[in-house]
Amino acid sequence: TFNVDNLNALSDLHPKPDTTFAYGTAGFRMKANLLDSVIFRAGIVATLRSKKLDGKVIGCMITASHNAAPDNGVKLVDPMGEMLEGSWEAHATTMSNCETNEQLAAYIHTMVSTLNIDLTKPARVVFGRDTRPSGDALVAALKDGFKVLDAESTDMGIITTPQLHYAVRCLNTQGTPEAYGEPTVEGYYKKLADAFKVLVEGKPRSSSTLILDCANGVGAPKFQEMLPFLGDSLAVKIVNDDIVDDTKLNLNSGADYVKTQQRGPLGLKMNSQDRYASFDGDADRLVYYYADEDGTFKLLDGDKIAGLAAMFIIELVKAAGIDNVSVGVVQTAYANGASTQYLRSNLNVPVSCVPTGVKHLHHEAMKYDVGVYFEANGHGTVVFSPSALKTIYTAEESSPAQAVAIRLLRALSEVINQTVGDAFSDLLLVEAILTQRQWTPKIWDQAYTDLPNRLVKVVVQDRSIFKTVDAERKLVEPVGLQDAIDAIVLKFRGGRSFVRPSGTEDVVRVYAEAATRSETDELAYRIAGLVF
Ligand code: NG1
Ligand code: ZN
Predict the structure, then answer these.
(1) Which SS3 state, helix, strand or coil, does residue 100 take?
(2) Which residues touch 75 (CB under 8 Å, ≥6 apart)?
(3) Angle, to 10 degrees, between the axis of helix 517-531 and the axis of helix 481-489?
(4) Which numbered ligand comes closest to the C-alpha of 29?
(5) Given this model, what pLDDT does residue 459 score?
(6) 194-229 tens-digit pLDDT
(7) Which residues face 362 on adjacent strands?
(8) pLDDT given for residue 485 in this prediction
(9) Can you give the pLDDT at residue 67?
């Protein structure tokens, strides 16, 4: 089934530019005009992965998330909707860097023999893309990649990243006891909306308006498409929904802008009556925010969402009388220190810290019966173990209060996209909790007060010399730098700071926290000075 002439003919249509590629924490991501050969070859990797896994469906998502419009990228999705396994990221990297058709053919042969891939097995792939103008041409390259080893492919068109992850899991679990849902966007809307209606049933709706900034990305048409399924259970006003003028994507709006600038989208007039939320360009990140009475901007980021979700789930587990179900929260070093303190001391919930990248968070969260994980930037979800689901679905109530808690837990496990962080699903989760509690964002915000924090980028000659340990909280190389950092941090009240190389940009990131805004800025400035 592997015809080298066929490979050569197709590969000639997608020549490799003079660039070195790497499949990083966010897949391949760069300027779209460099991606043609990479995406063609990602199609081959997806095909091989499917054949290796006995024809299980593999997903390919063409997106560059919160990056600017001229960028694009591709991520592969494993059968249960999770990120591609680590060892295959390395294969994708190697394949993307083959210089000639001969090298490419040789590497395919190497993979087939070293990984024992049976080429006579079927390959099935499903793919989608965001609204970027480069998407169409890149889809064509991907399809050529599928032709190399005859993968059977399904095009889901323009969809959000989490919708693709959802579809992959549905397709691979259809007809099994783990069936996840209908493998269509309608199936996705119906599953989330039905669960949400159960979660808010009988509770008065908030009189304030939810204003939803879609970063002029795919979240806009897709959330609009979900609204009829939600009926009158949720009132939303969508803003930043221009996907026609492609220069507007993620521009001065969206979750990344709001989180990093610590302000609302440009041009959005905020009032203290309403609540606000922002998606990123592929709708897998979510942040909330509001304006205080005096007009101060208040951010409710991924840490705040994790705290809200953990609080609600812990109380439901207790109320349902299934205390044997363990709940844990997973964060990265970027989590605000006040959030970690709140989780540990107020909620008494175990908190683990892992390196940056949702793959690490997801993996760690699966160690708990119910694992809540969020990056501070708003990317996260909740995962339920099979045994937790079994307990939740077989629990028997001995009081009306217990019955309510069990019903809510079941609906929560349905409204949450357990495959990956999903802005739609996370928004419904937050709205459900606020409605259940009849809370305003301000009440939610009162759980704890964020420590002032600062994140700065430092451009260095060679970021690969920075080596970290302890979930990226300590540097072991360059030797001596950590001691110098520690000596400075000691001088600041409530000071915390760490330095790590970015996995997605050619910079080193410095994070600092301290008791006051000015001390935080000074700490960040002094640490950055050490790195530079
Ligand atoms: P890097 O560039 O490795 O810091 C960034 C984000 C991560 C994650 C990835 C993938 C920060 C500080 N880092 O990683 O949280 O989202 O991009 O998109 O926000
Ligand atoms: Zn994203």
Answers:
(1) coil
(2) 26, 27, 28, 60, 61, 63, 83, 84, 161
(3) 160
(4) 1
(5) 95
(6) 999 999 999 999 889 999 999 999 999 999 999 999
(7) none
(8) 98
(9) 95
Question: Which helix (DSSP H) or strand (DSSP E) does residue 45 occupy?
Answer: helix 36-52
> Do 4-158 and 302-445 share a fold?
yes
Contact in structure between 421 and 380 (CB atoms under 8 Å):
yes
pLDDT in tens, 148-201: 999 999 999 999 999 999 999 999 999 999 999 999 999 999 999 999 999 999
Name the residue at shortest CA distance from atom 5 of ligand 1.
Answer: 504
Predicted local distance difference test score (pLDDT) of residue 263: 96
- Determine the pLDDT at residue 207: 87
Nearest to 215 by CA among 257, 260, 266, 249: 249
The CATH class that applies to domain 4-158 reads alpha beta
- Exposed, middle or buried by CB within 10 Å (0-12, 13-18, 19+), for 490? exposed
Query: Which position has the token pair 């299980």?
Result: 56
Helix, strand, or coil (residue 346): helix
Q: Which atom of ligand 1 is nearest to the CA of 503?
A: 3
pLDDT of residue 532: 86
Interval between CA 28 and ligand 1 midpoint (Å): 14
Both tokens of residue 386?
A: 């099979």
CB contact at 8 A, 322 and 397: no
Phi, psi (5° rounding) for residue 117? Answer: -90, 125
Strand partners, 465: none
Q: Quote the tokens at residue 414.
A: 């349905």
SS3 406: helix
pLDDT of residue 504: 84
Binding pocket residue ranges, ligand 1, CB within 6 Å: 25-26, 334, 356, 375, 377, 379, 502-505, 509
Question: From 1.10.1240.10, 3.30.2350.10, 1.20.1440.60, 3.40.120.10, which CATH number describes the 302-445 domain?
Answer: 3.40.120.10
The domain covering 453-531 belongs, at the CATH homologous superfamily level, to Alpha-D-phosphohexomutase, C-terminal domain (3.30.310.50)
**Residue 130 amino acid letter:** D
Q: What is the mean pLDDT of residues 387-399?
A: 95
Query: Which protein residue's CA is at the shortest distance from atom 1 of ligand 1?
Result: 502
CATH superfamily of 188-299: Alpha-D-Glucose-1,6-Bisphosphate, subunit A, domain 3 (3.40.120.10)
Atom of ligand 1 nearest to the CA of 25: 10
Cis peptide before 478 (omega within 30 of 0): yes
Looking at all shown ligands, the one closest to residue 25's CA atom is: 1
The answer to whether the beta carbons of residues 120 and 107 sit under 8 Å apart is: no
Three-class SS of residue 148? Answer: helix
Cβ neighbours, 10 Å, residue 519: 18
- Which residues are known to be catalytic? 65
144 token code pair: 């050529």
pLDDT at 25: 87
ipTM, 2 dp:
0.98
